[in-house]
Each structure stands twice: as C-alpha cells, then as structure tokens.
C-alpha cells in the first residue's frame, strides 16, 4: 500500500531502531506500508510471528491499523464484511456437519508468500 505525500509531513511514529520515533516525509515522496512486515510485529502478534499459529487469535486483539488483511481506510476492500460473513457461514456449516476436522497432511506449514500467503503443500483436510 503506497501513498504520496502532498506536502512536507511528519509521521508520529515508525522511525528509529525501535519504530517509536517520528519520520519526516518530504512533499512528493512515496510512503509505502509493507503489510507482510506489519503483520509480523512481535509487539502485537507475539514472539512466534514466523510460525503458523491459528490459536494466536484467541490471545490477541490487534487494534484497527495493526491488522490490515483487507487493507483499510476509504480504499479498503469493500467486500470485507461479506467475505467474513461467508467464511463464518461455511465454518459453521462444517462444524455442524462433521464431528472432526483434521489435517490430512503430516507435513507442517511451508509458506509461499507472494500477493497472498499460501501453503506450498496445499490444503489437505480430512472430515469425519
């Protein structure tokens, strides 16, 4: 996600070795937010940010701009609520229909990050 500064601007945080110092962005400079890095902030997501850990969502509640899976602001993904509703519906139907849902693959998560993150081993699931 990138924006161009229309005038000289001071961003309140993000600079320095700790990320807590201000950053100066001169007029016409591009400011880029790296969502991959944003979603690996140990202060928000815990020390095991590089590990696949779906249970982390039981322990954390990121603030508005700390999780941007659907981007954010006026240009964010317009279908976010519909996508979340459909995913919730599918999960509810699967939970009602099957007693157990297990991984069908003994191999662990092997990430391939491009535009989205995916498992290079695919998604092998067993329903009982």
Automatic annotation (TrEMBL):
<dbReference type="GO" id="GO:0020037">
    <property type="term" value="F:heme binding"/>
</dbReference>
<comment type="similarity">
    <text>Belongs to the cytochrome P450 family.</text>
</comment>
<keyword id="KW-0843">Virulence</keyword>
<protein>
    <submittedName>
        <fullName>Uncharacterized protein</fullName>
    </submittedName>
</protein>
<dbReference type="GO" id="GO:0004497">
    <property type="term" value="F:monooxygenase activity"/>
</dbReference>
<dbReference type="InterPro" id="IPR047146">
    <property type="entry name" value="Cyt_P450_E_CYP52_fungi"/>
</dbReference>
<keyword id="KW-0408">Iron</keyword>
<dbReference type="Pfam" id="PF00067">
    <property type="entry name" value="p450"/>
</dbReference>
<keyword id="KW-0479">Metal-binding</keyword>
<dbReference type="InterPro" id="IPR001128">
    <property type="entry name" value="Cyt_P450"/>
</dbReference>
<dbReference type="GO" id="GO:0005506">
    <property type="term" value="F:iron ion binding"/>
</dbReference>
<keyword id="KW-0560">Oxidoreductase</keyword>
<dbReference type="GO" id="GO:0016705">
    <property type="term" value="F:oxidoreductase activity, acting on paired donors, with incorporation or reduction of molecular oxygen"/>
</dbReference>
<dbReference type="InterPro" id="IPR036396">
    <property type="entry name" value="Cyt_P450_sf"/>
</dbReference>
<keyword id="KW-0503">Monooxygenase</keyword>
